[in-house]
Amino acid sequence: MVIRVYIASSSGSTAIKKKQQDVLGFLEANKIGFEEKDIAANEENRKWMRENVPEDSRPATGYPLPPQIFNESQYRGDYDAFFEARENNAVYAFLGLTAPPGSKEAEAQAKQQE
């Protein structure tokens, strides 16, 4: 399973750049493998992302903005969903991955099962 993060390499928005760096930095720091898909430099990536973000996760107007996160082709969420999962020590579940032993998330899951 491959985590795919759709980003815009040439976004004029500092807020979008910061959110993208936040997601990518977290994945790198936690050694979670991922592919970066640039929607600014590749029309196919942009088209695929726009078509695969579910209707109920799209903004009322316009297109979904990066970063958008997928596990293979399964939509996992946007930055806000990622941020909430991170705050709740549930990023692996959010990504559709098994938390590694010894991680805060794995420890929290073990306590819930007791």
From TrEMBL:
InterPro entries: Glut_rich_SH3-bd (IPR006993), SH3BGR (IPR051033), Thioredoxin-like_sf (IPR036249). GO terms for molecular function: SH3 domain binding. Keywords: Cell membrane, Cytoplasm, Membrane, SH3-binding. The keyword Lipid biosynthesis does not apply. It is found in: Cell membrane; Cytoplasm, Cytosol. GO terms for cellular component: cytosol; nucleus; plasma membrane. It comes from the Eukaryota. Monomer. Interacts with PFN1/Profilin-1. Interacts with ERBB2. Interacts with ATG12. Interacts with BECN1. Interacts with translating ribosomes. Appears to function as an adapter protein that bridges proteins together or proteins with mRNAs. May function as a ubiquitin ligase-substrate adapter. Additionally, associates with translating cytoplasmic ribosomes and may promote the expression of specific mRNAs. PANTHER family: ADAPTER SH3BGRL (PTHR12232:SF5), SH3 DOMAIN-BINDING GLUTAMIC ACID-RICH-LIKE PROTEIN (PTHR12232). Belongs to the SH3BGR family. This is SH3 domain-binding glutamic acid-rich-like protein. The gene is Sh3bgrl.
